Amino acid sequence: MSESNLTHTVLNSFHRKLGGKMVAFAGFDMPIQYESILAESRAVRNSIGIFDVSHMGRFIIEGQDSRALLNWIHTASIGIDMPLFRARYGLICNEAGGIIDDAIVYKLAGSKFLLVANAANSKKIFDWLQIWISSKYPHVQISDKTKELAMIAVQGPYAIEKVQQLLGVDLSSLKPFNIIETNILGSMGFIARTGYTGEDGVEIMPLASVAELLCETLVRDGAAPCGLGARDVLRLEAGLLLHGQDIDESTNPVEAGLKKFVDFTKDFCGSQNIQKPQIASNKYLIGFKTEGRSLVPRSHADILQNGEIIGHVTSGGYSPSLDTNIGLGYVQNRSVVHQEQIEIDVRGRKINATVVEIPFYKRKKP
């Protein structure tokens, strides 16, 4: 896709002023890095970094059938007992149980919700919602707020403190996976204690008109601007899956190790076909780390054991936090367990690796 055909977030000029190296991602013109991917990754782990995630889809879903609709299309419990201002992470599956997207649902009022979808799947999720509104849940209204609201992830051990100082809002009672509506630089927006890095932090959703000022102020006060490269390093270290790479419509939540985000007590789209593979499927996700740092395992590399191919890599890279190469992949051999020895075929060269627990990295508790 040519640069002229790419969509720009409201922060595009901000990225360019700071010298961001721009690349095409999910149809958007996005920064992959500013200073360096490793420096930005370390800033988030040790201090504070900010990411433009405005390319992700943001939909307000409300109306008499809104809760029932979301409870049907989402694997987590979006029941009547879901607390106000609570967030639920889960999967949106097709009838066969394949993962269309992973998404967070926030409850803003009794019958008003915010759904955040991945950028590459935003239109697909909007259309998927419309299908079920037309066929099963007619009393629902959807408003696409993707252009109206920006979305900025502020992540790191000092993120909460910095945002409180800047915005003059008390976040001490904002628990993980909760959201508040508050004044952000003179206009109302949302702050959610969520993220995709494995660190503490928030995702701020201000009006688009104040987004650049917010980012400029955060950078002036010491936050490191971070790009897609650092985001991928950090999410991989934290064992967070990337749709289109680690999960897709050929994978179900059980195979992906995401059972804890599925409410099997309810009926939802694909539920019957998701439960069956718990017995039948021999495909499952593993994490591994290699010996040494020489060759980096990448997507589609073969995973071997005793000379036989047993699976393939979905994500891999160098981990600055662990100073070794790490990766995720699917295997068909259930005898592959924690600390088991495997090999990764990296461009024809066999690299020794060890199966390890996911996540690879856990943040230090205060």
Properties at a glance:
366 residues, single chain, globular, six-stranded antiparallel beta barrel, alpha+beta
Secondary-structure-derived class: alpha+beta
Largest sheet, strands/sense/barrel: 6 strands, mixed
* Count of separate DSSP helical elements: 9
Helical fraction: 10-25%
Helix and strand topology:
Blueprint: H1 12-17, E1 21-25, E2 28-33, H2 37-46, E3 49-52, E4 57-62, H3 66-73, E5 87-93, E6 99-109, E7 112-117, H4 122-135, E8 141-144, E9 152-155, H5 159-167, E10 179-184, E11 187-192, E12 201-205, H6 208-220, E13 224-226, H7 228-237, H8 271-275, H9 277-280, E14 284-290, E15 302-305, E16 308-319, E17 324-331, E18 341-346, E19 349-356
Parallel strand pairs: 3-13
Antiparallel strand pairs: 1-2, 3-9, 4-7, 4-8, 5-6, 6-7, 9-12, 10-11, 11-12, 14-17, 14-19, 15-16, 15-18, 16-17, 18-19
Describe this entry's structure for a reader.
By secondary structure, the chain is of the alpha+beta class. It is 22% helix and 32% strand. The protein is built from nine helices and 19 strands. The chain has helices spanning 12-17, 37-46, 66-73, 122-135, 159-167, 208-220, 228-237, 271-275, 277-280; strands at residues 21-25, 28-33, 49-52, 57-62, 87-93, 99-109, 112-117, 141-144, 152-155, 179-184, 187-192, 201-205, 224-226, 284-290, 302-305, 308-319, 324-331, 341-346, 349-356. A six-stranded mixed beta sheet has the order 10-11-12-9-3-13, sandwiched between helices. Strands 14-17-16-15-18-19 form a six-stranded antiparallel beta barrel. A hairpin with a 2-residue loop joins strand 6 (99-109) and strand 7. Helix 2 packs across helix 7. It is globular, with a radius of gyration of 21 Å. The model has no long low-confidence stretch (mean pLDDT 95).
